[in-house]
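Here is one chain, start to finish.
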Amino acid sequence: MKILKHIRFFLILLVFYSCSGNKKEAIGSMVREWIGKKILFPENTLFITYDGKDSVDFLSMKSDYRIVTYVNSEACFSCTLRLPFWKEFIMEVDSVSLDKNIPILFYFDPPNKSDLYILLKRYNFMYPICIDEEDCLNKLNHFPTDMAFQTFLLDSDNKVLAIGNPINPQVKELYLNIIQGKQLGRENKSKHIITKVSIDRSSVSMGSFDWQEEQKSAFTLKNTGDKPLVIQDVTTSCGCTTVAYSKEPLQPGGATTLEVVYKAERPEHFDKTITLYCNTDNSPLTLKISGDAK
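Its structure:
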């Protein structure tokens, strides 16, 4: 019964995905497939900190919930880790958990362990991780190929209660509500204040430039609805791209600017994505920057 309840809860989130009806149907089918499925873990898995000072057998820990996230080496590894976000999320989970003992299982399959250790040290990420060089976890479970659906909230029997990356604010809210035992239902949808937004452009070309020179650009957002516009989060596809924006609610008719800074790590042609989460029907919104760092 608990599993069936969370299927209904999670399907509510489909209203937050700005995609076609066919894609929503595909997401819904995938969610129904995974909710209630038991995640299998490789035997004798240990989690260690990057400096080797700590090792944890998370799989033997007793807890009502656990979260497992999987990152492989097929995409830009530094872009997909989002370590600062996970540090904040771990603190949020600890703050709402009654037993303060919900393990978060990080399975990383990095293209280069040395680069991973550099990233962990750069962000002072001391939470234990598992380096899964043989990709054993994925081979046991055959995860969805979409990185947005390679994170799972599990019950004490390792059965999936919810699926999705909590970088998405609505997914994070769902995870935290389940952990707190809050009841979710269709009535919650009406509590979300929805407005409308227009953007002056969806993509920016920064042209050609010396790769050592920082590049700046901007997107202008206007609240075209009749309710305050709230930017809940902005994520980027790479650590080389940062975005500054106001966290204050934008009143109807008002405008605000997303200030984008790109700092190349090497000479390259780039196409980077900025994902904007806000209280609109078409959230999340996708913006792009491109150019040639020479």
